[in-house]
Amino acid sequence: MENELAIALIGAGSALTGAVIGGTAAVVAASKTARSAYLGSLESLRRTAQREVYAELLKAAHAFEAGTGAVLESAGILLDGLVSEQEGLPRRHSSSERSAFRRAISSAADPEPVAAAARQVELEGPSRVAAAARNVRAAAQQLSTTLNSIEDADEGLRPATSADLPREHFELLKSAISTFAETARKHLNHR
Predict the structure, then answer these.
(1) pLDDT tens digits for range 95-126
(2) What is the per-residue DSSP string for 80-96?
(3) How far is 100 from 82, CA to CA, in rounded Å?
(4) Which sign, positive or negative, has the C-alpha torsion 79, 85, 90, 95?
(5) 47: exposed, middle or buried (Cβ count in 10 Å: 0-12, 13-18, 19+)
(6) 58-76 burial, b if ≥16 CB within 10 A, otherwise e?
(7) How would you label 128-167 residue by residue, b for 16+ Cβ within 10 Å and e otherwise?
(8) What pTM did the predictor assign?
């Protein structure tokens, strides 16, 4: 009977040890699964937020690009008029036409929507996407400054800018937007 009791106690102890080990393993596995599911949903939410602010920057940048692209010809006309005037030649466009060109340029050359969207991207990151967003913001600001300097020069406030500068800064903006879009796409598609 003693042997049977010892065998029963050993069996019960082994069963209890097995149950504890199995239970612990199940709890650890469940904890890891829950943590993975939780972190996965957080990552999904973060990527969704990033995608939204990236899209907002692209929307603002493309609107700025379209608006400034539409006034490049007007900027060229104002610059040509300034050059003609400096050479002592009469301007080909009336004062009211030049005023309309200046209003169109001033309206199109507001970089603030691009800057605001770029700041949101900088908050969401990561650093390489934030850097590309800063480049878009800087290019928009540079183009805005260039276009507004034409407007100011036409009003006699500053010297005229180079005739090629607005087009060059416009091309830099387009390049910065393209680089941002590619950088953002790579980040969002990376796992």
Answers:
(1) 778 888 888 898 888 999 999 999 999 998 89
(2) HHHHHHHTTPPPSS-HH
(3) 16
(4) positive
(5) middle
(6) bebbeebbeebeebbebbb
(7) ebbebbbbbbbbbbbbbebbbbbbbbbeeeeebbeeebbb
(8) 0.74
